[in-house]
Every structure is written in C-alpha cells, then in structure tokens.
Amino acid sequence: MLSAVLAALAGPLADGLLGRVITLVQNYQNKQLTEAQLRAELEKALVSAAAEVEKEHAETLAKSYGAFLATTRHSPLLQRAFAAVIYSQLAVLLWHQLGIPAYVAIAGRAYPSSGTTVEWAYLLLAACLGLGSVVLRAGPGGRTFAVGQTAAPPAARRR
After folding, report:
1. How far is Cα 25 from Cα 159, in angstroms, rounded to an integer?
2. Beta carbons of 143 and 152 less than 8 angstroms apart
3. pLDDT (0 to 100) of residue 6
4. Is the pLDDT of residue 144 over 70?
5. CB–CB of 15/6 below 8 Å?
6. Is the pTM of this model over 0.70?
7. How far apart are CA 22 and CA 89, in angstroms?
8. Which 8-state DSSP code applies to residue 96?
C-alpha cells in the first residue's frame, strides 16, 4: 500500500520540483539570482513540494478510508467488528477514567499499572473514527507557513 501511495506521489512531485529547481539554477548561473536568493527560492520550492505531498497523501488516505467505510456499510460482519472495537475500547477508557479512581477511593490501595492499555484504546478509537485523515489535514498540506515561521500569518488565523 505504501509503495502504491509513493508511486502515485513521486511523478507529480518530481515533475513540479525538478522543473522549479532547474529554472532556479539556470537563473543563478545567468547571474539573475544571488546565492542568498537561490537559497531562499530553493527553500520555498521544497516547502511547497512537501505541502503538495501532504495534500496528495491526505486525499489518498481519505479515499482509502471512504472505501473502507463504504464496504462497512454493506457488510454486517464488518459492522459488528467495528462496533465491538469501539464499545470495548470505550469500556477500557471508562474503566481507567472512572473505575480505577473509584476502586482506589473505596479500597484505599493502589491499582496495578495496566501499561499502555489506555494509549492503545485511544489509538484504536481514533483509528476507527478516521485518525489518518484528521491528522494529515493538520500538517503542512493543511496550513502552509513561510520558511522558518511557526505560526500562521494573521490573515490565516482568522479563518
């Protein structure tokens, strides 16, 4: 699956980035750009290429998740499995948030550690609810900033 995603993204990425880099280098060789300008333009090209990859990857992931949900709509077995995962992990989270504190308060003693059970429960619930699409929309593909900038410009924050 990953190789298919990379193959789908590699062609457009190489075409767009390579063309821009060749043009920038030619302009530098023809003395139309200084070294500092070339460096800045190359950074912009790389950031925009990374943003394009993020957007394409998010769209591909959203389509894959949509196809999975379409299959789930028509398969009673997948619907039951999906529901079993959601309800079991919800029970685990409720036990950790309500049951364990109540046990400790009533019994007056510590409850043994359950390791990473809670992290896995959150992960499984998020995965069932479309974590990939949500996470990737928040990356560079969802919001592109200027090089070296860690926050959105004021105009982008108002959206």
Report:
1. 37
2. yes
3. 62
4. no
5. no
6. no
7. 52
8. I
